[in-house]
Here is the input.
Amino acid sequence: MNYLLFGHAGSANHGCEAIVRSTLKILGNNQYYLQSKHWEEDLNFELDELVTPVFLNEKEVRKNSPADLFFRAKARLGKLGYDELILKRVYKQALIKDSIALSVGGDNYCYTGIINELRAAIKALQTKEIPTVLWGCSVDRSHLDERTIEDLKSYRLITARESETIETLRSIGIEETVVPCTDPAFTLEKQEVGSANAFFEDGEVIGINVSDFMKYYNAYPDATFLNFKNLIDYILKETHYKIALIPHVRQPNNDDLVASRLLSKQFLSDRIWVVDGDLNCMELKYIISKCTLFVGCRTHSTIAAYSTCVPTLVVGYSVKARGICKDIFGRTENLLTDARTFQSDHDLTNLFLSFREEAPDLKKRLIDFMPIYIQNAYPAGEAVKNLRTN
Here is the structure.
């Protein structure tokens, strides 16, 4: 079977990397092609050992190049737009008979910036009669308009990773093509990081993932940073825990390491470790799994924690964060906070106090529930394979 994975944002976003790696695990031994926005990142994390690259040579379509002029002229004469024609050419190297195309950017329908590109991609694919799958997705109701709803209805299959998205899809008349599933990254394997073990040997560790991206969602200037600063100050002064600051996205202008280093510099404590190596998603999951407790902004950092039964407090705002937390615990109260609602610099610390008291019960819930929950990722793979016979 030939699978094209598209809508991938690059592996320095380790949530995206985790989705690709775990998708291959779920679908099994096949031929995979990956269309990536940042193939250089995928090479750095050795995805080329698992998939065949599909990429656009940007020099070929630079403004007024022969290819650019050719595509513009053809778009004026035909039914396909400029972007669709380019994508059609890009995908030509991957699309052969019996191919299935998976849109693997799980939250691409939670933001406005990527929707037009996705629209062009699915049109180019469906013109070739390639079945398209929206894979392991979340959908934000606030970003849906009539045209986007029609796009969603055009997918042959939608595997939805949490209940809020399933309800949203049902409310717009999309139900028969929807298969409920667990985010594929819950199945991701760990990869030992030997150099990290010493930090965990002589004491309990709280893992913290703080996203520099969260500054755009603050309730007031620097709300996220100040809340994490005060949380770390409390942990160092009032508890025995050490702290691992764990970046999970390392892309230009969207780099968790920026905030992690800035926080670390506020304290200069030997009880703080900033994880700044060039680690892949499996190695990061290993480090997160060693933590006693975890506080995280990035959804896939929290997935790494949940799936290894580490009690987790989420600083999130998205449909995916709310839906996954609710599906695991039946609630979000005291387990998830929205940075847009911070009222003071101590809100996160106050929430951490009640979260810490509840942590033993949360761990028991994860130990009991997680094996079944992780297995729920695999029916989505069976549904994709069944597209060949339908």
